[in-house]
Every structure is written in structure tokens, then in C-alpha cells.
Amino acid sequence: MRRLYLDRNLQYVFGVTLMAVLGVSSIIPALPDIMKGLHLGPVQIGLVISAFTLPGVLFSPLVGIMADRVGRKVVLVPSLFVFSGFGFACFFARTMDQLLILRFFQGVGAAPLGVLYSTMIGDLYHGAERGQAMGYNASVLAMGTAGYPAIGGVLALLGWNYPFLLPLLAIPLGLAILFFMNTPEPLKSGSLKEYFAEALRRMKTREAMALFATTLLTFVILYGPLITYLPILLSHRFSASPATIGLVFLAASGFTGLASFQLGRLTQRFGQKTLLSAAAVFYGLCMIFTPQAPSLLLTIPPVICFGLAQGLNIPTVMTMLTTIAPMEQRGAFMAANGLLLRLAQTVAPMLMGGLYALGGMNAVFWGGFACAVAILILARFYIVNINPTPNRPDPAHR
């Protein structure tokens, strides 16, 4: 099997993936400082994340349709430029209202990124290579999730707004993709009505619905207890600095990368169903033990459990979805998945904010535990192993 991580097209996809996670991961350690700088409370701080993710809920279906009907790069390149421009503008925000408006428009640019990186992997690779490429990409995602909090934490030492310099990286990436990336594009065949009917028929299968639900629950856990409230827990209980908070997330993401990098081998040995079940157990362990940790050091083992769960769960779900979907509807499939992902990102901080108001930090993590149990039930009773297609290209590309 060739070394896919050396393929230039996959490296461009890696770049898109890194931009897709930058918008939230880079500001995680700065959230306590944003609270101080803009005079926000623990319940309100979730709006900084929700404003960014809301456009994904609103525009993900349109993104998938456009990617299938007019092409992947036509949607991708302008999105990178919008993401970069409004993200950089957040650096100059001086009020809560200004920051939320700019974050919303930055989110408009970010909405297509999470849809398109997985779609393009499905287009470029087939059979066992698809799962391997998805695993490599998840490792890159983990490196971004790990690296951006560390970088953002250091930048936040200069001021809460300094992490918003990082979106400028999307400009050279967009130019490189525009001029140098080669990726197959789907054929626009049949009417729009026929396109919708066929995509909806495939999405309504039991396997697809269970995978969509798994995505929703996964990102409720990620953007509720972990991204929004773990930094607050570490800051308030252990007086952790932004840089220290970034290092805790680095530990989680490191293990995500390790698990993802071995995804191809793990899938062949244990099967997708078992990997998703194991991920649910790791999520549950994290939710139980993190709020009970008596010291900052002892928060690391349960956070590592979360990292392992992410490395097993997310690339497996993505691989299964891109295998179910033909190229002509793959953008729509990943857009539907992206819609649920963004919905979870948007709702989770507010949902967990409500639990925090009712029962404090423990209530937030018990809410995450309930989601982990639901993922386990789906994995054991509603998801079946999906055999990959042979290593051959899809016929529908130009």
C-alpha cells in the first residue's frame, strides 16, 4: 500500500482540515481571558463558540448541494478567504456584540470546510485506502486540535484577541489549492429533484441514521463538557493558565492522533462496530472521572480517554458515511453530517450552560456521560460493519 500521507492532494486536504478546526481550537485557552476582557459569565461564554458554529447549521445543506452540483473547489477556495478575513477582523473587536457578529461571518466561511475535507477524501481514495486516508486526516485534525490550543494559549498571554491572528493562514492555503490541487469532480446528472430524492433515500437507511446520530452525540460531548467547560474547570479549580490549559488539550489530541494513525490496522483486526463501542466506553470514563480529579495532573488520564475515543470514533464514522454515499451524493451526505455536527457545536454550549446553571460542573459532565451511553447503544444495536469497496475509482467523475 502506497504512502498516502506523501500524496500532494491529500496534503492539501490536511490543510483544509487544519483550518476547519482552527476557529474553535485556537481560542479554547483564551476563553477565561475573553470572559474577563468582555465581562462575560460562564453561561454567556458559550455564545463565542455558538456564534461561530451557527452558520454551519444554516448553510451546511446548501454547501453539500453546491459541492455536488458545481464542484468542490468552486465552493472551497472562496470559503477559505471569507474564513480568513472575518477571523482576522475579530482581533479588532472591542465589544461582545462586535465579536459575535464577526464570529458569525467567520463561521460562514468555515461551514464548508468540515464538509469538504471528508468529501474530497471520499472522492480521491477508495477501498482500504479510504479508511487509511481518513485515519491520517484524523491524525492531522488531532495535531491541529492539540497544537492550536498550545499556540493560542501562548498568544493569549499577549492579549485575549491575539489568537485571532491565526486565520490569516487560510489565505496562502486557498491560493495553493486554487492553482495546484487536482481532485475529481462529480458529474451533474439528472434533475435537482432526482438528486434530492436519491440522496434522501440513501440517508434514510438505518446505518446512515445511526451514524448521523453518533456524530451529533459526539460533538455534544466535545463542545459541551470538553471545549466549553473543561477550560473553566481547570482555571477555576486549579488556577491553570491559558498555556497550561492548552497543554492538557495537547495530551488528549496526542492520543487521538495515535489512535487515528492506526485506524486501518485496528479496523481490519476488530471491525468498525467494536471500535465505535470502545470509543463510547472511553467517552464515559472521561465524563465520570474528569470532574472528580483532585489535582490538575490527575485530570490528564481521563482527558486521554477522551482523546482515544475521538481517534477511534470520528474517522470510523466518516469512513463509513463516505463508503455508503456514491460520489454524486457524497457532498450531500457529508453536508448532512456537517449539519448535525454544527448543530451539536451550536447547541452544546447552551445546553451544558443550562445544566451548569441547574447543577454546576458535575451536571455538565453527567450530561456528557448520558451521550456516551447513547453512542454505545447505537454502536451495539444499530450500526453494522460496512465493507469497503475495492480500490477502484468511482465512475462518476470528470
Automatic annotation (TrEMBL):
Task: Extract the Pfam families matched here.
Answer: MFS_1
What sections of the protein cross the membrane? 12-31, 43-67, 74-94, 100-122, 134-158, 164-183, 210-232, 244-263, 275-294, 300-327, 339-358, 364-383
UniProt KW Transmembrane keyword: yes
Topology in the lipid bilayer is annotated as: Multi-pass membrane protein
Q: Where is the Major facilitator superfamily (MFS) profile domain?
A: 9-391
Q: Give the matching PROSITE patterns.
A: MFS (PS50850), SUGAR_TRANSPORT_1 (PS00216)
InterPro entries found in the cross-reference section: MFS, MFS_dom, MFS_Efflux_Transporters, MFS_trans_sf, Sugar_transporter_CS
- Domain of life where this protein originates: Bacteria
Q: What is this protein called?
A: MFS transporter
| Natural source organism | Pseudodesulfovibrio karagichevae
